[in-house]
Every structure is written in C-alpha cells, then in structure tokens.
Write a structure and sequence with these properties.
heterodimer; A: 138 residues; mainly beta; Immunoglobulin-like; 4-stranded antiparallel sheet; 3-stranded antiparallel sheet; 1 helix; 5% helix; B: 101 residues
Chain lengths: 138, 101
C-alpha cells in the first residue's frame, strides 16, 4: 500500500485517531505492513491485524509510553526442493507501528493471535473511561 | 498467493488470515482450481472506527494448474492463516531416467 492510499483511507481526523501507522518510505528489510482495523469502544481501543503465517512464538508486540510496535515472522512449511513459480508475497516479515495517545494504558495491553489474525486490546486509563453517573432522587 | 512446484506436487499457498475453514469452497475442474469463501467482520454500532483496511466480504480466486495435475489428488489444509493446497502430479509426467543397456 502506498503512502497516498494510506492517507486517503484515513477515515477520521479526531484527536484520538492518532493510531496511524508510521511507515517509513524505505523499509530496510522490506517488511510487509499488515492491514489493520482499529476501533474504539467505551473501554479502549482494539487493533486487529492480518498476519497470515505468524504464530505466537515468532511474534513480538512491544509497547511503551509513545507507541506500539508489532513485528512478526511468518513460518511457512514448504517441502524440500520446492521451486517457486509465482509469488505475490516475497517477504516473510511483518512490521507496523502505532502511536498511542495519553489516555491509553500501555501497561494493560493484551494481545492474542489466532489463524494469523492478531488482536491487540489497549484499555483506556481507568480514570479516563466514561463513567455513568446515577441520578438520585431526593 | 504463492505457488511452488516439486517433482511430485504443485504447492499453492493462499494468505488469508482469520477465516473460518467451513466458509471455504475449493474445487478443481479440468485443471482449474477455484477457491472461494468469505470473511465477515461483525458490525458493531458501539464502535467508532479509525481504520478499516482489512478485507470484509466474499472473495474468489481461480488458478489454472499444470496439465499433469490429478484432480483426485488435491489436498487442502488451513493453518495459522494460510490455506495450503497440494495438488499431486501424475506419475507419467515425472521426468524418467532412461538407463542405457
């Protein structure tokens, strides 16, 4: 995906939508940028990434105050002596980074992968979650 | 999709994360392999979306296989987001070494 398309596909410019991917123009090792779905609900943000071929052992999700970096290597079992005749995917490495805004709790991030689909849950800080105030009758 | 060949098989790899294998329909007819299926991303109203890049919906791909592939010997397995189809090639098409008497 090109940078132009990335910009064109950005759906929201709200302040919280700072989870935009930072894709360097020239990735040194030609890592693939996995497509992502990002959505927010009352408790936090969920990021879903398509990383076919990646299993738990060759996946790294790192988070600090500034952001989140996802890296993974696809492990594809191939028979010995195989001769490639057609390839759409030439790299077995995925990488994508996201910026986290201040209201998110980087310590509470949870990630799980199933069938090559990585789901990352970034909770909001408890004090910043919308709180429903009960109106009391006097 | 990547394709590789060995003397025995044609190996086809489809990169498709998060699929339900039951939604896949794989068929071979006259050496044309068709793979179709769908991935539905559940819509939820209480979410505000920032990015929606992952493919949502039905898909279909058609590949013509080499003529020496035997339709009865096509196997498929889905694992870790990769659909791997192995199509066996017929014995007759294998290179045969001729001994000199």
């Amino acid at each position: 995906m090109t940078q132009t398309q990335e910009v064109a596909r950005r759906q929201s410019t709200e302040p919280q939508a700072e989870n935009q991917a930072q894709v360097p123009a020239h990735e040194p090792d030609h890592a693939l940028v996995p497509p992502a779905d990002i959505f927010e609900d009352a408790d936090g943000i969920t990021i879903q990434l398509d990383m076919p071929g990646v299993v738990k052992d060759c996946l790294s999700v790192k988070a600090d105050r500034n952001g989140l970096v996802v890296e993974g290597d696809a492990s594809i079992e191939m028979p010995e002596g195989i001769e490639a005749v057609y390839a759409e995917i030439r790299s077995a490495r995925y990488r994508r980074s996201f910026t986290l805004t201040g209201e998110l709790d980087a310590d509470g991030i949870e990630a799980s992968i199933k069938d090559g689909m990585l789901v990352i849950r970034v909770p909001k800080r408890p004090e910043l979650k919308p709180r429903r105030i009960e109106v009391q009758t006097v | 999709m990547n394709i590789g060949v060995t003397p025995e098989n044609v190996e086809i790899y489809f990169f498709a994360a998060g699929l339900d294998p039951k939604s896949l329909d794989i068929s071979v007819q006259q050496n044309v392999l068709t793979v179709s299926g769908e991935r539905r991303i559940a819509p939820q109203d209480d979410r505000s979306w920032y990015r929606n890049e992952r493919y949502d919906g039905a898909f279909r791909r058609v590949v013509s296989l080499p003529e020496d592939v035997e339709p009865a010997r096509v196997k498929a397995q889905y694992r870790d987001g990769i659909l791997h189809i192995t199509a066996g090639r017929s014995e007759a098409a294998k290179p045969r070494k001729i001994e000199i008497n």
